[in-house]
Amino acid sequence: FQADRVTQAAFEVAWDAIVAGISERGSVRESEIQQAILDHFKAHGCVTEHAPIVGEGPNSGNPHYDPQAGSDREIREGSLVLVDLW
Questions:
Q1: What's the CA gap between 66 and 59, in Å, rounded?
Q2: Mean pLDDT over residues 22-29, rounded?
Q3: What's the number of CA atoms in the CB half-sphere (13 Å) around residue 14?
Q4: Could you give the CA distance from residue 22 to residue 42 in angstroms, rounded to a whole number?
Q5: Those residues with Cβ within 8 angstroms of residue 82's Cβ, 6 or more apart along the chain or in another chain
Q6: What is the SS3 assignment for the chain?
Q7: Partners of 28 in beta bridges
Q8: Is the confidence at residue 56, as pLDDT, over 90?
Q9: S-S: 30 plus which of 3, 16, 72, 77, CB 3.0-4.6 Å?
């Protein structure tokens, strides 16, 4: 039950980070949101074999997408975003 609570809370962490990034800078990168989720897990003592998928636009349809800093997409107001926490 504890892992479920942490995982469910990770969605709020992701959406809050997206809103903050867009509000402050006009966009935020997929890899930044993925890292925010991983930091949340670490802060609550959770580990995972694979990082969650954070995909914007066309990347949201790739079931094995793994955003890489520098080649990942920007999330902007109006973007379609997938946050896949398994």
A1: 9
A2: 98
A3: 25
A4: 24
A5: 53, 54, 55, 56, 59, 60, 61
A6: CHHHHHHHHHHHHHHHHHHHHHHHHCCEEHHHHHHHHHHHHHHCCCCCCCCCEEEEHHHHHCCCCCCCCCCCCEECCCCCEEEECC
A7: 75
A8: yes
A9: 72
Query: Does 86 have pLDDT greater than 90?
Result: no
Determine the Cα–Cα distance for residues 11 and 58; give it in Å rounded to an integer. Answer: 20
Tokens standing for 77?
């107001």
The label of the residue with tokens 């469910």 reads 8
Q: Cα separation of 70 and 13, whole Å? A: 22
HSE (CB half, 13 Å, CA atoms) of 21?
19
**Encoded tokens for 12:** 């709020």
Tokens 């955003």 belong to residue: 67
User: What are the tokens at 71?
Assistant: 């080649």
The angle subtended at Cα 58 by Cα 77 and Cα 27, nearest 5°, is 25
